[in-house]
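Fold it.
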Amino acid sequence: MRVAVLSDIHANLTALEAVIADVREMSPDVVLQGGDLVGGGSSPAEVVDRVRELGWRGVFGNFDEAVARPETLEEFAKQSRAPAGIWAAVSDMTAFTREALGGERIAWLSALPRVLIRAPVALTHASVRSAWEAPGAGATDRELEETYSPLGQALAVYGHIHQPFVRRLARLTVANSGSVSQSFDGDARTSYVLVDDGTPVIRRVEYEVEREIQAMTARGMPHADWMARTLRAARPQMP
């Protein structure tokens, strides 16, 4: 069986369509989405509608949760060590996203599960415990095993950190699908995971970054300049 897993679209329809074209060429049996469909991009409603139209099953991410339940953003911001300015900017983008989505789409996001099992793949956005915290790309084997072996599958896939990797451990393989939008590894291309007979491979796809930047500005997205710098640098930036 061939399974495609993509995550962290972040309302970037331009990047999503590029990935869809590549996925179609790969002809997977199943496509799964790993959360953060929205947040920080020009087209939240269009992305949600496209994913629903394609019938992809998936899980919710932290930004999806913040849109559906704004109090979760406030709670995490209080615990976070990140500068307050980041959370103020994220709050602005959350409000923009909620207005663009409307009630019915928000209700659909809120109904997504935290974990999805499609043997041999176990999918979660960040971890079983939280959509907001996940091991980084430099995590130890022990940390990855402790976090993802409870999912009970030979392969665990997650997103959230925007840095794709594959790590083969003693009891399972852990893969991070990277991100369709807002790459943080210095490579501005989209990334996703293609699982062929249980073996995960990272795929990278070019897309028109400047087209998405123009769309963010045209739609009046708050902090579009911040997201533009992030997309171009393919590294986290400050607001």
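The helical segments are 13-26, 44-54, 62-68, 70-79, 84-110, 141-148, 209-218, 224-233.
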